[in-house]
Amino acid sequence: MTTPTPPAADLPAPADLPAPTDPPAPTAPAPDPTAPSTRALRVLALCGFLLLAGCLVLTAVLGLVDAVEGDGVGGGLLTAGLWALALGAAAGTAALAVPRRALVAAQYALAFAAPVLAALD
């Protein structure tokens, strides 16, 4: 038993079919025109290593001055300053691998925090 096919006049024309209602494809947000490029962030991270080296020398000098003039024992804030330098170096290394503005800012903030912590000791 075969099913009869309707005549061509009964089928809707392609123009009579409703248009598909697919949602528009999501678009990526426009890049910020004032954001620094990845190359600029990597250069800032490399300059941050020079700053870290200078802050290491200053922190060591402050620690030695405290050891000579004080009781001869480094306090907890000196240790915190040295840890800040180590974390700053880690943030700088991460900023070289994956350039992000927050990582470079953390590198600089930790570099400046180390001598301040050593001076407070």
Care to describe what's here?
- The chain has 121 residues and is mostly helical.
- Helix content is 61%, strand content 0%.
- The chain contains three helices and no strands.
- It has helices spanning 38-69, 76-97, 101-120.
- Helix 1 (38-69) packs parallel to helix 3.
- The longest helix has 32 residues, at 38-69.
- The chain is rod-shaped.
- The model has no long low-confidence stretch (mean pLDDT 86).
Supply the key terms.
121 residues, single chain
Q: What is the rounded distance between the termini?
A: 99 Å
Which regions contain 5 or more consecutive residues with pLDDT less than 50? none
Give Rg in angstroms. Answer: 32 Å
Given the structure, what is the number of helices? Answer: 3
How would you characterize the largest beta sheet?
none
Portion in beta strands: under 5%
| Structural classification | mainly alpha
* Number of E-type strands: 0
Shape by Cα distribution: rod-shaped
- Write the element-wise H/E pattern from the N-terminal end onward: HHH
* Portion in helices: 55-70%
Let me know the average pLDDT. 86
